[in-house]
Amino acid sequence: IDTVELGGDLEIALKTTSAGIELQRNPSIFKMGVFKRLFSPLIEEWFNGIRFGVKDADLIVLSIGSLFVGLSCIEKCPNIKAIGIYTFPLIPTAEFSPPGIGEKSVSLLNCINSLKWKVSEYINISCYREKLNELRSSINLPPLTFNYYQMIQATMKKPMTTATIYSKHLIARPTDWQENDHIVGPILDEDQHNFEPSPTLLDFFNKWKSEKIIFVGLGSMMGAMLGNNEQIQFLNNIQAALKNNNCKAVISLVGYQQTDINNLSNTDNIFYLKQIIPHSWLFLNVSAVIHHGGAGTTHASLRYGLPTLILSFVVDQPFNGDRIFINKLGPRHIPMAKTNVKNLTNAIHDLINRNYSMYQMNAKKISELIKNEDGIGQCVRLIEAELAK
Predict the structure, then answer these.
(1) What order of strands is seen across the sheet that includes strand 162-164?
(2) Which UniProt keywords apply (predicted)?
(3) Residues 28-34: contacts with CB within 8 Å, 24+ apart?
(4) 272 near 266, Cβ under 8 Å?
(5) Whose C-alpha in 61, 75, 79, 231 is 20 to 30 A from the C-alpha of 287?
(6) How many angstroms from the chain centroid is the CA of residue 308?
């Protein structure tokens, strides 16, 4: 399948623009003016990339970030079909709250959930509306009223098939979704890519094979959302919390500023990991994980039956952290801005000591269920069915 480079790298924009740096300091979704400044040039790049890249396409797969832009690009291409594949729930429902609004995934009343979805849509739309309608006008398209179902109906003249690559065992498919909206399970990369661990890493695992080892890694969020000083502060805090619990740990330094981590050396209790390692190898060798709560990493930790503590930044990460807590798969998540030695020490004690047996039992149960969900196969079948129509 041919691919097209769209441009508009969000991670680079977060690091190099004034709006991106401001959001790094305070990633509030209510900072709509800052989000507009950040997203406007990206939207234009995405719009032009998709518009010229899909002219000969049979079908376009729309992600969460490309939904509004992609639908506009194919509105004048009636022969191009579309399917949405979302990494977390995007479709409004009364049964749970939208990712990105608050730290809880559910409200006490369904009407509060519905209200939160309206607020979420308004915020998302506000980031896109002005620039996208300007771009639509440039190709003689009318302005849009941005409501999820209304926009799909306006551009495609029919419902669009969607696949949310999320485990239905982490949150059930809402009964008020349309029949063409599916929760299919996660897509996980379980290929170890011929990975060969270093002798020093193997020595560390062999030395502590009779004890619990925690993996700590915040992935791309470390470089995208934290400045140099904040990175070092977090590293100091997590090291202190691990020491307070006498833990053995592998700490990923991927994403950290290299100038400050090159002098770190492995200790008896901590191994500093400076390379990316496949989850499919690493998670077989640890007892619990601490990470940022991205949808992929969250499902990977559960796929391997690991008790999980999430240190969340933005968007779906607090939502995923709350699903971990509600399903008794790990402690209550901690927003990254609230991570300190005391909070981390208490959460790690809960994760690895106080409630470890319960979290491990529940994680192993959901692991067996996730193995049978076949998210990639379901997506392929939905795409092939759409192409056959």
Answers:
(1) 59-62, 81-86, 162-164, 181-183
(2) Transferase
(3) 29/100, 29/101, 29/123, 29/314, 29/315, 30/123, 32/123, 32/126, 32/127
(4) yes
(5) 231
(6) 15
Q: What top-level class would CATH report for the domain 10-186+374-388?
A: alpha beta
Dihedral of alpha carbons 287, 291, 297, 299, sign:
positive
C-alpha–C-alpha distance, residues 237 and 256, integer Å: 15
Secondary structure element (H or E) that encloses residue 322, with its range: helix 317-326
Q: Does domain 199-371 have CATH number 1.10.1740.10?
A: no
Q: How far is CA 33 from CA 12, 17, 18, 297, in A?
A: 19, 14, 12, 30
**C-alpha–C-alpha distance, residues 104 and 326, integer Å:** 10
Per-position pLDDT tens, the chain of length 389: 777 777 888 778 877 888 777 776 666 666 677 778 888 888 889 998 888 888 788 898 999 888 888 888 888 787 889 999 999 999 999 999 999 887 889 998 999 999 999 888 888 777 788 888 999 999 898 887 767 888 888 777 888 999 999 999 999 999 999 999 999 999 998 776 788 889 999 999 999 989 999 999 987 777 666 777 888 888 889 999 999 999 999 999 887 766 566 667 678 899 998 888 889 999 999 999 999 999 999 999 999 999 999 999 888 999 999 999 999 999 999 998 899 999 999 999 999 999 999 999 999 999 999 999 999 999 999 999 999 98
Q: How far is CA 156 from CA 65, 83, 150, 379, in A?
A: 18, 11, 10, 20
Same fold, 10-186+374-388 and 199-371: yes
The packing angle between helices 295-303 and 317-326, to 10°, is: 30
Q: Could you state, in order of their start, the residue ranges of all structural domains in the chain?
A: 10-186+374-388, 199-371
